[in-house]
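can u do me a favor
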């Protein structure tokens, strides 16, 4: 029966809005979020009370919440349940204090043990039941995560699964949809994973709708078309009208048809066009008042109230003057009755933004202008061609380049091509420059150089302002040096051709920013010039930039040449200095005294990248100029280890490398962990004082390995720096990597050629697969540069829904242009964007869905993207950054101890935002490295995806996240921003001053106190004035070596309990034979960290006596092989005393040290004692594999009142493993008798311990790849007591068992496991249980025989396959 009230409610209740879950602390808060995201929920909003940025969702938040995360999931199909939103709220006890009725929040400790053991959990409590058609996947996930669950009505045919989340919420999964639901309307698709839902930028209302015009003026430059395209499409996407003014200021004066409203399709295909398609002309009329009056009238008549001018300093000067005169022009037009007051009323303010389009790069306040790098590319290409003929005939060439008042092209081309001498107007040569030039060139010739290149800017002068012409330079070379000399004036060739990748990206991003500047302009605010500083798009006052630019010409005219250089940007001066340092060998004033000269090594690691050779050349030449010696490690670390491939670099040897692609010294992807001992030996042999690693993520990882290995190898206690060089641009610590620009240029050239084919057919789409590994940088920036319709990256993956939307977009695009638009269409897919949706599959889907209306093709450029000759940008940045790297090595040297204690001594150089920075590896390893995906955790270019999608037409409008303005977001005025930069600069200076003092990082406790996006970060130590910092909470999944984990466990227990002490051979002064006890003597003193004589029986007996007296000794054996001298003390004294005393006398003692085989230590030092001690009553025996095992088991051993034997492995000490946040806390222990499932499987169980666990995991992956076999790997961890239950449970599931160990086969651990299998698992086995062990032979010394004596991955996978008969 339905009551009236219920009937009324039925009309108002339409479904579940959301489910709210409350966590009492941060750990449970994040555990709960992880739990539901593992189940497929997506984060759609993240709120933090400390940084509230949720906008219109503020009222939906709980007032008591410190943090909230909203999770969402949608049904895949209709009639499959409803969309679900879960709000996870963090409400701490402190927030509840004072509330009228404070609920008690119960904290759960684990999801692996259910809070109830009743038969049917459905009757235990209220439950949240979710619909899922894939229960088998749910079960696999729960098993993999180790979550307890219950299947109903039975395990064999379940249609309901129940489990508990970290908050003790009973969560159910059912394969049956709501039985009373007939029509289910799905909600809009959830946003991309881990992306906060932000409000969209709604189209402007009619009242706020603007008409924005764009024009190009002055000299044309490549990239102008890209800027016009970006302005037009951004304006339309933001709901405004876009206009183009043809023929520059002349078109503005004439008006009429020269002012044209633009549509979206009008600018299709413009990115790849050279020059400017809307024309440009210098207008004499606009320079006069009457011309500007006509221009103002035309803007008013057309309703235009925003003007974007793309041109040089003259064009922008005219624009600023036009804006200043605007009110007077309107009054004059009204007075002349050319317009009415009513017409003029809406146009009281004219908003103007400037884009600098100039091949000279002569505008101050910006690092680059649109077209400058394209022009530089033409120059370098010409010089590269000339280079070959010059060398062939031993000729000299004088190259004249553009630049009347700016020497940027001359400087950069000189750096890029390795020229011998340059002439620029800002830095004229002194009196007698002819002799100076000839001396330098003569010295180069004497060193063996066959060619001479001199680059002259067209505005070059001497200090008396007398022009230096190319012909005069030629005359000097001929008359003085008798060189066969030619002159080449490149002229307007420098303007021609299409824009390079950088100019396309710069023009597009600056075009977007210019529209935003117009839309957000406030009355009275100065007109902005859109600039770029390093890698960051910025706005600078237009009038100030013009004033500074004109100031350069005035300074030159007044012979104030130092002032002229200062008015240029810092980058310009740095490049000039880099040219001098790498061109003029052995300048006496730059050469260091003998005692300060160093030996620096350079190594390439990873795949080849354009600019590697230029960087190596620059580093070597700078070293030579300073008096250092530079050594190349040929063919990477394998070359060093196997072939002693160290060669000194000479001036002549590297002189011609600036223009060469690839790697002249050879590169290799292998990291130094191949043999750290041999790498250290060679470092010591050659007495390297510093190391420069050039390469990609492999170089970054190599630096991390070397830094961590400093604890064991003093040879690595030298300053080291990584210079990122990879086409993928996936190195943490930088937004730019050498080689990425070369790659992008190769890709856009390839795509331009493909577009030509697509345009010819008019109805063709090309799906292009680009490189980049698991980083989508190349695909994203390639999409921005080519105007690709869609871009697929690994970070966002590919979903079927996304593909279908893109296909619909294609349909609409082809339907709209009706075959009339000749621009082809490109889709870019990163090679690892999806394992399912391959390039071929996407093309086939497009072809199938097109149904004959258009067609698709695939194209894979492959290694073409690595490029041939490096691009000019990669060359010049390689020189600048390599020079800075050597300077960094110079300033961060010192004694071995000083370097070891200085966290800055291992760093990555990078361009981040508006600065070149060095970031210490110890920070990057934890904060910014996604080790699994080999990329940074944060990448600036991911914020550009929205812009790429809007400009391509894939999205209709911007999201708020696409258009974040730092100054607007923080509400800063320009003065406030400057004050903030000044404060940060002072903080950085103070930090550097403090860094000169002693830095104690033994506790590894650091903390950030700056903002993540700051250009500089102020830093401080929580307990001292030292500058160093890190984190108040240990990060999740930090990398720890087993050695570090053991060291941390020892330190924590020594700190926590004064009864704990450690003794053994060399544990104190030498920091332990394997450096496990490093730093403990300094921290706890000689009374608690005790060196002993070489008498194992003696100090073991002493330790047992101390334990019987109530202390808690930790006895380290240098190797368990030596403990045979003390076996009587271990077994008869320690293990049996508790029993023989009738349970009265405990013996709390821990014996630890390396056990089992190592490498090349022969029979007497390679024995595995696991079975020996595992057979003794009274002893507990553990054998760790990972870092978490090592720390948790050792801490448990020290706290246990019984004698415990900890059997470590020497080969694992230097191996790194992830450490969870829980494991990094000082209360973390692993209970004895609990094995760990390292890998979930269903076909066979592999049970192992110590180092063999890793071999089993590798073998399991091999079994899956080759046979589709899913092996379950169990890490015993605890040998006695042994977790027999875990093995039984696994065998119940798999039906097959192999035990793997490195000990002898007779009477071993695996023998015990097989015996237990007969006692407890016989009925569950589908095949006889087997064992894989070491050979029944004393361990051989010969390497080949030694490797045959122990299990390896191939043997394990082979035996498993044989057992399963696959």
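np, heres the sequence
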């Amino acid at each position: 029966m339905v009551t009236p009230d219920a009937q009324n409610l039925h009309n108002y209740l339409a479904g579940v809005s959301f489910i709210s879950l409350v966590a009492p602390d941060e750990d449970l808060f994040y555990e709960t979020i992880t739990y539901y995201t593992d189940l497929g929920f997506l984060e759609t909003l993240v709120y933090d009370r400390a940084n509230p940025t949720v906008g219109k969702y503020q009222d939906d938040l709980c007032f008591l919440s410190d943090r909230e995360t909203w999770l969402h999931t949608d049904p895949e199909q209709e009639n499959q349940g409803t969309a679900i939103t879960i709000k996870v709220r963090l409400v701490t006890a402190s927030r509840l204090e004072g509330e009228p009725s404070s609920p008690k929040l119960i904290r759960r400790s684990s999801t692996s043990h259910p809070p109830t053991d009743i038969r049917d959990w459905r009757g235990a409590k209220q439950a949240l039941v979710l619909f899922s058609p894939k229960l088998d996947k749910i079960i696999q996930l729960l098993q993999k995560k180790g979550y307890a669950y219950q299947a109903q009505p039975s395990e064999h045919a379940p249609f309901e699964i129940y489990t508990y989340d970290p908050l003790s919420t009973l969560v159910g999964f059912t394969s049956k949809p709501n039985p009373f639901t007939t029509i289910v309307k799905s909600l809009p698709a959830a946003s991309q994973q881990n992306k906060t839902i932000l409000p969209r930028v709604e189209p402007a209302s009619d009242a706020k709708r603007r008409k924005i015009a764009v024009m190009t003026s002055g000299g044309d430059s490549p990239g102008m078309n890209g800027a016009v395209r970006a302005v037009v499409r951004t304006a339309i996407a933001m709901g405004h009208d876009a206009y183009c003014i043809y023929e520059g200021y002349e078109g503005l004066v004439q008006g009429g048809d020269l002012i044209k409203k633009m549509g979206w399709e009008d600018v299709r295909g413009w990115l790849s066009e050279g020059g400017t398609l809307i024309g440009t002309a210098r207008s004499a009329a606009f320079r006069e008042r009457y011309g500007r009056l006509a221009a103002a009238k035309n803007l008013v008549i057309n309703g235009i109230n925003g003007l974007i001018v793309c041109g040089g300093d003259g064009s922008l000067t005219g624009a600023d003057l036009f804006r200043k005169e605007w009110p007077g022009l309107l009054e004059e037009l009204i007075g002349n009755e050319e317009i009415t007051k009513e017409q003029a009323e809406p146009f009281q303010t004219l908003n103007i933004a400037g884009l600098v389009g100039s091949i000279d790069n002569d505008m101050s306040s910006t690092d680059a202008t649109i077209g400058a790098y394209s022009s530089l590319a033409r120059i370098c290409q010409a010089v590269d061609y000339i280079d070959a003929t010059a060398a062939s005939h031993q000729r000299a060439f004088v190259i004249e380049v553009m630049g009347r008042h700016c020497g940027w092209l001359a400087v950069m081309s000189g750096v890029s091509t390795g020229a011998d001498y340059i002439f620029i107007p800002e830095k004229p040569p002194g009196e007698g420059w002819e002799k100076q030039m000839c001396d330098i060139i003569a010295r180069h010739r004497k060193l063996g150089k066959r060619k001479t290149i001199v680059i002259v800017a067209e505005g070059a002068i001497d200090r008396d302002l007398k022009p230096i012409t190319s012909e005069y330079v030629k005359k000097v070379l001929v008359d003085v040096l008798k060189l066969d000399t030619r002159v080449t004036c490149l002229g307007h060739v420098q303007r021609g051709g299409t824009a390079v990748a950088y100019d396309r990206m710069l023009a597009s991003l600056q075009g977007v920013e210019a529209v935003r500047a117009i839309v957000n302009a406030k009355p009275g605010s100065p007109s902005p010039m859109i600039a770029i500083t390093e890698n960051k798009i910025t706005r600078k006052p237009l009038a100030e930039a013009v004033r500074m630019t004109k100031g350069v010409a005035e300074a030159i005219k007044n012979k104030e040449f130092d002032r002229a250089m200062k008015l240029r940007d810092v980058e310009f001066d740095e490049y000039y200095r880099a040219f001098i340092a790498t061109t003029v060998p052995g300048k006496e004033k730059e050469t260091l005294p003998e005692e300060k000269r160093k030996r620096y090594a350079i190594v390439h690691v990873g795949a080849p990248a354009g600019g590697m050779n230029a960087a190596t050349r620059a580093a070597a030449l700078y070293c030579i100029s300073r008096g250092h010696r530079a050594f190349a490690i040929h063919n990477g670390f394998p070359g060093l280890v196997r072939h002693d491939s160290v060669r000194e670099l000479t001036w002549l040897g590297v002189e011609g490398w600036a223009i060469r692609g690839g790697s002249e010294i050879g590169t290799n992807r292998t990291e130094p962990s191949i043999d750290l001992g041999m790498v250290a030996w060679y470092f010591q042999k050659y007495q390297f004082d510093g190391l420069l690693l050039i390469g990609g993520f492999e170089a970054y990882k190599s630096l991390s390995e070397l830094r961590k290995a400093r604890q064991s190898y003093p040879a690595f206690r030298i300053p080291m720096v990584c210079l990122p060089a990879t086409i993928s641009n996936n190195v943490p610590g930088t937004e730019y990597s050498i080689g990425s620009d070369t790659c992008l240029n190769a890709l856009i050239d390839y795509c331009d050629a493909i577009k030509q084919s697509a345009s010819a057919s008019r109805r063709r789409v090309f799906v292009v697969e680009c490189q980049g590994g698991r980083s989508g940088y190349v695909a994203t920036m390639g999409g921005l540069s080519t105007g690709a319709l869609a871009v697929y990256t690994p970070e966002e993956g590919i979903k079927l829904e996304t593909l279908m939307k893109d296909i619909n977009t294609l349909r609409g695009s082809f339907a709209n242009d009706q075959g009339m638009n000749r621009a082809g269409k490109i889709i870019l897919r990163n090679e690892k964007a999806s394992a399912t949706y391959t390039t071929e599959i996407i093309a086939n889907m497009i072809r199938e869905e097109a149904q004959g209306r258009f067609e698709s093709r695939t194209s894979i450029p492959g290694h073409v993207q690595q490029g041939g000759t490096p691009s000019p940008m990669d060359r010049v940045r390689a020189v600048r950054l390599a020079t800075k790297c050597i300077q960094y090595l110079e300033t961060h040297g010192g004694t071995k101890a000083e370097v070891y204690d200085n966290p800055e001594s291992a760093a990555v150089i990078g361009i981040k935002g508006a600065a070149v920075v060095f970031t210490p590896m110890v920070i990057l390893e934890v904060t910014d490295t996604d080790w699994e995906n080999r990329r940074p955790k944060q990448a600036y270019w991911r914020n550009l995806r929205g812009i790429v999608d809007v400009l391509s037409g894939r999205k209709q409008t911007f999201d708020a996240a696409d258009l974040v303005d730092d100054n607007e977001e923080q509400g800063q005025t320009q003065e406030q921003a400057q004050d903030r930069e000044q404060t940060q600069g002072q903080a950085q200076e103070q930090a550097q001053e403090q860094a000169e003092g002693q830095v104690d990082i033994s506790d590894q406790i650091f903390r950030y106190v700056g903002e993540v996006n700051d250009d500089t970060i102020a830093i401080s130590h929580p307990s001292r004035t030292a500058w160093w910092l890190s984190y108040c909470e240990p990060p999740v999944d930090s990398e720890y070596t087993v050695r570090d984990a053991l060291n941390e466990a020892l330190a924590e227990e020594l700190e926590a309990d004064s009864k704990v002490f450690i003794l053994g051979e060399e544990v104190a002064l030498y920091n332990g034979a394997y450096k496990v006890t490093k730093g403990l003597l300094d921290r706890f003193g000689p009374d608690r960290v005790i060196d002993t004589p070489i008498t194992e029986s003696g100090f073991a007996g002493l330790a047992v006596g101390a334990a019987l007296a109530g202390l808690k000794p930790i006895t380290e054996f240098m190797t368990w092989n030596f403990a045979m001298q003390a076996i009587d003390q271990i077994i008869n004294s320690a293990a049996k005393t508790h029993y023989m005393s009738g349970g009265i006398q405990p013996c709390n003692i821990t014996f630890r040290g390396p056990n089992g085989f190592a490498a090349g230590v022969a029979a007497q030092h390679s024995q595995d004692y696991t079975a020996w001690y595992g057979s003794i009553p009274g002893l507990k025996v553990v054998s760790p594999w990972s870092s978490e095992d090592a720390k948790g088991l050792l801490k448990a051993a020290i706290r246990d009142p019984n004698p415990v034997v900890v059997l470590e492995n020497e080969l694992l000490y230097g191996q790194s493993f992830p450490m969870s946040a829980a494991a990094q806390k000082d209360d973390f222990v692993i209970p004895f008798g609990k094995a760990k499932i390292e890998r979930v499987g269903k076909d066979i169980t592999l049970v192992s311990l110590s180092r063999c666990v890793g071999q089993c995991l590798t073998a399991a992956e091999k079994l899956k790849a080759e046979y589709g076999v899913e092996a379950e790997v169990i890490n015993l961890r605890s040998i006695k007591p042994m977790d027999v239950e875990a093995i039984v449970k696994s065998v119940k599931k798999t039906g097959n068992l192999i035990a793997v160990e490195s000990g002898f086969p007779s009477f071993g651990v695996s023998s015990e496991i097989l015996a237990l299998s007969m006692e407890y698992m016989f009925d569950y086995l589908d095949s006889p249980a087997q064992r894989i062990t070491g050979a029944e032979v004393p361990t051989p010394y010969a390497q080949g025989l030694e490797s045959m004596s122990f299990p390896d991955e191939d043997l394990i996978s082979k035996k498993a396959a044989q057992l399963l008969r696959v």
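Residues 730 and 935 are 5 Å apart (CA to CA). hope that helps!!
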